[in-house]
Amino acid sequence: MKFPRGHSLKEIAQLIDAKFVGPSDFPVFGCNEIHVVEEGDIVFVDHPKYYDKALQSKASVILINKKVKCPQGKALLIAKDPFTCFNKLTKHFNPFEPSNSSISKTAIIGKNTIVQPNVFIGNNVEIGENCVIHPNVTIYDNCIIGNNVTIHAGSIIGADAFYYKKRQAGYDKLISGGSVLIEDNVDIGALCTIDRGVSAITTIKKGTKLDNQVQIGHDTIIGEKCLIASQTGVAGCVIIEDDVILWGQVGTNSGITIGKGAIVLGQTGVTKSVKGGKTYFGTPIEESRKKLKEIIEIKQLIKNQKK
Fold it and tell me: Where do the UDP-3-O-[3-hydroxymyristoyl] glucosamine N-acyltransferase non-repeat region domain residues begin and end (predicted)?
């Protein structure tokens, strides 16, 4: 999430009531999660397990809950609760804007695009040309839809990320400040849900097709010309490369990569990253031939034991 303009380290520290280490005029241009952070950004870390990863990341500013040695060329923001401070930044730079109409006046809708009854289109949404948006679709603020896109009835684009921190009193939500990008020639089936990024953009690239009832988690990137069948659930921060096929009821762990041209057979649990160009099956996931051979061998072993 980039700020509308650059801010000084001192300005940000005052905004979130934090101490800072580094020049007061150190420039800050945005805030992002660790997997998408860039130079000029703030990244937050609140667990010793991830201190080194955050300090060595591309981030220029590390929002941390312990005073540590500041890496050369970077700056620190020190606060008791970085999670809450990160939420403060999201609320300040990307506040929630209530809507008072079904289609926002700030939405941009391209030529020959058809919007059916009972569709909600939020603030600053952009929809390209020759699209069809079917009844009861909801498109949240700041989402971008390309040309020749079809979104079937009841689908929801841009809902919040499923991201919580466990506290003594319950679960504390990390506020979503990202958006969704759907590129050209994408089809979205009925009752699909595509969550926006926490601080970046959930992306579905050109030519990809989603069946009905597919869930795509926050900050996930789906490549070009992929097929995703019904009742598949893709977790947050997943990378699915081009030409991947996920058959029905596939589920994935977060933070994994599925390589180009991979085929994942139905009801598989993608528990780890897998290479492209191969077919996979089962939970835990394995190459399908190997998995099916194991199943046959186990059945034969059981049969022999019964003799």
Answer: 25-91
Q: Is 152 a catalytic residue?
A: no
Instruction: Give the global pTM.
Output: 0.93
* Yes or no: domain 108-289 corresponds to CATH 3.40.50.1820: no
Identified catalytic residue from 7, 134, 152, 218: 218
The token pair at 94 is: 């990307």
Please check whether residue 156 is in contact with residue 194, taking contact to mean a CB–CB distance below 8 angstroms. Answer: yes
Q: Cite the DSSP H helix spans in 59-150.
A: 82-93
**pLDDT recorded at residue 307:** 65
- For the stretch 167-219, pLDDT in tens is 999 999 999 999 999 999 999 999 999 999 999 999 999 999 999 999 999 99
Q: Please report, for residues 64, 80, 113, 213, the alpha-carbon distance to residue 51 in angstroms, rounded to integers and kept in the order given.
A: 8, 15, 48, 38
Tell me the sheet residues that pair with 195.
159
CATH architecture of the domain with range 2-93:
3-Layer(aba) Sandwich (3.40)
